[in-house]
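Possible regression after last week's pipeline update?

I re-ran a chain I had predicted before the update to compare outputs. Posting the input and the new output here so someone can diff against the archived version. Not blocking, just want to make sure nothing changed silently.
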Amino acid sequence: MKKVVCVSTSPWYPIPTRKQQVMRRLKDVEILYFDPPVSFLAPLKDKSAKEKLRAYRAPGEKVKDNITVYATPPVLPFFNKFRIINRLNQFRLARFIRKKMQRHGFDDAVLWCYSPTSADLAPHVPHKALVYDCVDRHSAYGGLMNPAVVDKMEEDLAARADQVFATADALARRLRECNTTARCIPNGAEYELFAQARTAQPCPEDIAALPGPILGFVGALQECIEYSYLYAAAQAHPEWSFVLIGAEKPGADLKALKTCPNVHFLGLRPHDQLPQYIAQFSLCLNLFADSALSRDVSPLKFYEYLATGKPVVSTPQPQQVLQFSDAIEIAGTENEFIAACERAIHDTDPAREALRADYGRKSSWDSRVEEIESVLRSHAIM
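New output (post-update):
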C-alpha cells in the first residue's frame, strides 16, 4: 500500500476542509496526518489552548482504517516573521514526524504539505516525493508575519516539490514561476451530503420560529467577508431573516450587524446537520470583500451551496464564481446586492435549480480527488 505523510494546516476535527476531504478519498493509501502545532503563546489568548500544548504526547488516533492522526509539539512564535525561528520549529517537528514514521514503517512515503513553513521541514523528513497543495495566498493573511518571508518560504517549498497543486488560477500562475508542474484544482463539495437539502429536511429548532424568507451564510465569519452588504440588506428589508452559521474570527467587524434584530448568529453547527439548515434557506450568500486574500480563495461554501441547488447571491470575488454566472446572481455593490437578493428569493425555476446542482455534482470532492490522483499517476508519484 502507498504511504502519505500529510503535514496539515487544519486539525482533523471539527471542521472538514480540503485537507481532510482529499486525504480520506485517496485510494490504496496509508496516511499519517499531522495536525498543525500551536504556539507556546497560544494560552495567553485562549486558556483552553494550554491542553493543546501537551496533546502531542497522546497516541495517534485512527480516524479511518488507513488514516492515523497525530497532534504535534508546540512551536516558538513569530515563525512567519523570522526564518531562523521557523527553521528551529521545523527541525523539531521533523524529528517528531520521523519517530512516528519509523513506528508505522513509513520508509518510502510521499510528503504532502499545506504550509509554506514546510520549506524548512522537507529537508529533514525522508520522502520519495514531495507534494505542495497551496490553498491560499498565505502572505495575505496579515497579523504576526512578514509577507516577504512567507512568500520566500513558499517559493522554496514549491521549487523543491515534485508536484504543486493550487486552489485558484492566480495561485497556480504564481507558483508556476517556481515549478512548472503547478496546476489549479479548485476546492469542492461533499455533493451527496449537501444535495440532501434538495429534499424536505427537518427544520432545526433554533431557526423554526424565524419569519421567511431566510437568507443564509455558512462559513467562518472572518475579516475578508463583505459585511456592509449584509447590513445594507438587513436595513432595507427588515422583514427578511439573515442566518449566519460559523465561528466568529478575530478581526471581523460585526458590531453593526449585531444591532440588526433580523440578523441571527448561530455559531458553529455540526457539519452533517448543515443540509437541514440550508434546506430552510430561500437563498445562500457568498460574500467576499475585494482583497488580495479573497481574490485567490476557493470557497468551500460556494460549491456546497451549488450542490443544494438553492439560489446563490455572490460578490464577484473570488474570480472562480464568475464561471457560474448563468446559474447565480453576482453583485458588486450594496444596491446590486439588495436587488440580486430580491430576484433570487423568487428564483424557483426548476431548470436553474438543476443547473446549480449539476455544477455542484461536477465540483464534488470525488471528482476533484480523481483529478489529483490522475496527475500524480502521470508523474509516477503515486
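Follow-up from reviewer: compared with the archived run. The longest strand covers residues 2-7. Marking as no regression found.
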